[in-house]
Design goal:
The protein is about 40% helix and about 15% strand. By secondary structure, the protein is of the alpha/beta class. The chain has a single domain, classed as TIM Barrel (Alpha-Beta Barrel). It is globular, with a radius of gyration of 19 Å.
Length: about 325
């Protein structure tokens, strides 16, 4: 495993991290979560990402159980808040009240004394940014949080919160968590340049485009049983892609090309994300240890730039 600094900060995270959005506390039981987490840790992964809203707290509970017998100092545990956790009017957003109560609740569910990286799951247009910044800064000063970041914030929002944090002499954000993959490159135009300017690192989710970039979905065929694509409760963000037979065929062409070079497509797709130095870690999901074992190989792949260029051309249909 290789490690990268989180933006400009001293903390280092594994190039491959493990998340639990659609698995922990939902589709796999706690014993399987523990098996995956321990295998990932044995393979050098130290970065584990979750959120309070994932399965309404159950994902945090499952991760908390999984890490109980791992040395806490060896882990970088990240969680998030923003989305509603109940029908209570204040149980949402990025107010001081909600951030403080969310951190305290996450600490209990994770069974830990501190959160390494607390992330704001979305931008809150209804709360003044100075309130949000002061709240997280107070939690850092109290020792409950070490670093903070954002998720899916645009370049303007990142710039604005950095400027406000500087004005308040508060701790600055260390990271952004966006969607990023060979099929979703929108952060390259402005988010990455702004993040580089202000010292934020990207910890990206869906680097395999919800599994589409594994090559397991074939044109003209239904999604294989047991996959996310076949699960109507979790495939809502995949349906347009899965219905695009031309794209699925290009992914098969990419798979053939990648394998001709001795690579596996999932690890190659992750390595493509990691070609950007501003990407601190790629967050994978896993329901089996074998998936983790396959994906950690991304940290060892160093294809030449022209290989990535050829791969991009294949996906564009210009091969």
């Amino acid at each position: 495993m290789q490690y990268r600094k989180l933006g400009r900060y001293g903390i280092r995270v594994s190039e491959v991290g493990v998340g639990g959005w659609l698995t922990h506390g939902r589709t796999i039981d706690d014993s399987v979560t523990a098996e995956i987490v321990h295998r990932a840790f044995d393979l050098g992964i130290n970065f584990f990402d979750t959120a309070d809203v994932y399965n309404t707290g159950e994902a945090e509970k499952s991760l908390g159980l999984a890490i109980k017998d791992i040395k806490r100092e060896s882990l970088v545990v990240a969680t998030k808040c923003f989305f509603p956790m109940s029908q209570e009017t204040n149980d949402r957003g990025l107010s001081r009240k909600h951030i403080t109560e969310s951190v305290n609740a996450s600490l209990k569910r994770l069974q830990t004394d501190y959160i390494d990286l607390m992330q704001f799951h979305r931008f809150d247009s209804e709360t003044p940014l100075d309130e949000t910044v002061r709240a997280i800064d107070d939690l850092i000063r109290a020792g409950k949080v070490l670093y903070w970041g954002v998720s899916e914030w645009n370049a303007h929002q990142i710039t604005e919160v950095v400027h406000i944090a500087k004005q308040l002499n508060a701790n600055l954000p260390a990271s952004n968590q966006p969607s990023y993959s060979m099929l979703q490159r929108s952060i390259e135009d402005s988010v990455i340049p702004v993040s580089e300017l202000h010292g934020l690192g990207q910890v990206v989710f869906s680097p395999l485009a919800q599994g589409v970039l594994t090559g397991k979905y074939l044109p003209g065929q239904p999604a294989p049983a047991g996959t996310r694509g076949a699960d109507d409760s979790s495939n809502m963000w995949m349906r347009d892609t899965l219905a695009n037979d031309a794209l699925l065929q290009r992914i098969q062409d990419l798979k053939t090309y990648v394998e001709s070079l001795g690579f596996e497509l999932p690890a190659f797709a992750l390595a493509w994300c990691l070609r950007k130095q501003n990407v601190s870690s790629v967050i994978i999901g896993a329901s089996r240890t074998a998936q983790v074992e396959q994906n950690v190989l991304a940290a060892t792949l160093k294809p030449e730039p022209e290989v990535f260029e050829k791969a991009e051309a294949i996906l564009r249909g210009n091969s």
